[in-house]
Amino acid sequence: MIQQSNSIRRSTTLTAGILAAILTVVPSAIYFTMAFSRMTGVLETEGEINARVVGAMVVSNPNMWQFEELRLKELLSRRGSPDKEVRCILSLKGEVIAESADHLIRPLLSKTFPIYDAGHHVADLRVSRSLAPTLLVTVLLLCGGGITAHFTFFRLRTVPLRAIENAYRSLQESEEKYRSVYESLNEGLALYRAVPGDKEEADLILADINPAAISVFGFGRDDIGKSIRQVQGGLFASVRAALQGAQGELCLELKQEGAGRVFTVNAFSMGEGMVATLLEDVTEKKRTAEQLENLAYYDSLTGLLNRRMLLDRMEQTIGMAQREGLKMATLFFDLNGFKPINDTLGHEAGDQILIEVGRRLKGSVRKKDTLARLGGDEFVVVATLDTEENATCIAQNLLRKLTPVYEVGGREVYVGASIGISIYPDDGTTPETLLKNADIAMYNAKKPGVEFCFYSNQMNQKLQERTKLEFELWMALEREEFFLEYQPIVDARTGRITAVEALVRWMSPEQGRVMPDCFIPLAEATGIIVPLGEWVLKTACGKLRQWLDAGCLPLRVSVNISGCHFMRSELCRVVEETAAQTGVDLALLELELTETCLIKDVEETASKLWRLKGLNVSIGIDDFGTGYSSLQYLKNFPIDHLKIDRAFIRNVCELPDQRAIVDAIIGIAKAMELHVIAEGVETREQADYLAQRGCDELQGFYYYRPLGEERLLEVLRAERERLEASPDSAGAGGTGVRGEAGGEAGGGGGNLSPSPSGRGCPKGG
Prior knowledge:
Elements: H1 2-60, H2 69-77, E1 86-91, E2 96-99, E3 108-117, E4 120-130, H3 132-184, E5 188-196, E6 202-209, H4 211-215, H5 237-243, E7 250-256, E8 261-271, E9 274-281, H6 283-297, H7 307-324, E10 327-336, H8 338-345, H9 347-362, E11 370-375, E12 378-385, H10 388-402, E13 406-408, E14 411-413, E15 416-424, H11 431-444, E16 452-454, H12 457-479, E17 482-491, E18 497-508, E19 512-514, H13 516-526, H14 529-549, E20 556-560, H15 563-568, H16 571-582, E21 589-594, H17 595-598, H18 602-614, E22 618-624, H19 631-636, E23 641-644, H20 646-649, H21 656-671, E24 675-679, H22 684-692, E25 697-699, H23 709-725
Parallel strand pairs: 15-16, 18-20, 20-21, 21-22, 22-23, 23-24, 24-25
Antiparallel strand pairs: 1-2, 1-4, 3-4, 5-6, 5-9, 7-8, 8-9, 10-12, 10-15, 11-12, 13-14, 17-18, 17-25, 18-19
């Protein structure tokens, strides 16, 4: 590179010098030559003309012409160009006869021309011009050419050299960058030189390696010069074999046995018999890819397939069943009793149970069957079978494997399962449909005494009806299709109406009047009960305000609060907003809750109840005696009323044990200074007995059925008029006015509180 650069430098200098010399000399020389030639031609022309003129004068005056100096000077002064010149007539002896008056700067260019008289040479005419202007211009051109030549010389000499230097510098920088990249590569780069080998096969000899190849891939400097078959114990020998006859880039994956490492080798030709191999350790990438695949297709807790992979396997199994004419069973598992274990023993214990369930299921299914966990405590088994009876055997076998006790944290716990089964192609032809139908069947298997259940169209129809009813409930809230009826509560001693219980009803455009037992359970299950309960509370308080403004006597309004409503919503805030909107005195509002809802979260329940009590709201326990409560709760909670469930009132006059229960409840309430209400009173005997036992208030069909607002106002006005006419005539015991007597069993109706079982069954009526 240096020799080539010097040669180019010499050639460039010589060429630039020659061109500079030409630019310096040639323009000035050309100008001087042309100017000199022109001046010479002009002198000759002027001289010949003037010589003829003077000769004519000499011929005309041969003897005296020499003495006519003025005329000669006049003749010499005549010229055809403005250029200065000196004309002089000389005798043959060289003496000046006449001369023009111009002054010229030396050096001069002169030309002499003879003057003849009758063919005799008598004198000479000398014409002179100054060469100074021409020489001055020539010198200026010479200087300008020299300057131009000097600039041209250096430009011609330096530009190519600078370009060469820049190219050399760029090449050097590029080489340094290449070397930097070459040495800083995380991948190992090994350069091989192809040399002829045995049997006309080219061998690859290691020529160079980068630091990564040394530190990461175990190459050594002493490996340079060795055959690729010798480096790393021949690990890369397959590259040589693969390159034979291969075109373009070659990519191979190699495993290093013992070390558990995986390499990718990219081999490509670099020309001039050189081959480069780029090595990358993809062990971690492969491990990460496997982990991502496990996350994408497998459950991280149990190692079973997840939903995504399950659907793919089901597609394959459906295809196989279709080809071979088999049926396919989809068994949808849901563990029973798992949530209480999670809540009491913690999620770690729950995870141990799920892992054990997965292990037991793995040991119970065939290799060709598919086992997956969908999430939570839901598992799915997919199996091919000849007949549906085989699905029964599979379900029974799996249940037997799952039912033995589980030991968690040194404790033995029992976990059962409910299984829903759908059959391909009878219950669906797609994985999604089969899973959905098996899920529907599983919920039917939750019924008492049922362990597994096959899907049927009736189940789907019920589910669709439930879904439709849920939608209609939401629409009913928006379209204001709900309304309230009110069942009076009377004083057990006087028979006077002291309170009314607000009962929700639904007037559906399609179904007509819908009783609470048809929609309250679904409302609780779907959460619609919360906005519905708020509507009942605000509507009842608003109506009470209207009745008081219309002149009715003050009375309590009892509103049933669902357990879902009590636990999920900010009930205290709703009550405060209701009081602010309606202006009703909260001392006239009674909220009824069930025992079951009170014991779910004792601390939170107590906090909410005391806040309500601080608002001056009365709090009652509905359906007392049918739930699971503690007398300790009654002592610690701010309870005002106990309402004895109608189940104990129905046969209170016939069955001694029923009377004993009622007497015990009344006795406990009185001992704790609680107000006692009995609901479901249908006969005079029941009313008399309860009044005698100290029951404070009575409610039931014996007195009043649930009334519409207009009918209730009529009853309230009639009672007010009766009291005003005879204020001391109110009867005692159960002999008060029966506004709406007799009728069906079961007095209350349609409250928003769940039944003692927690399933939300409303009161009839």
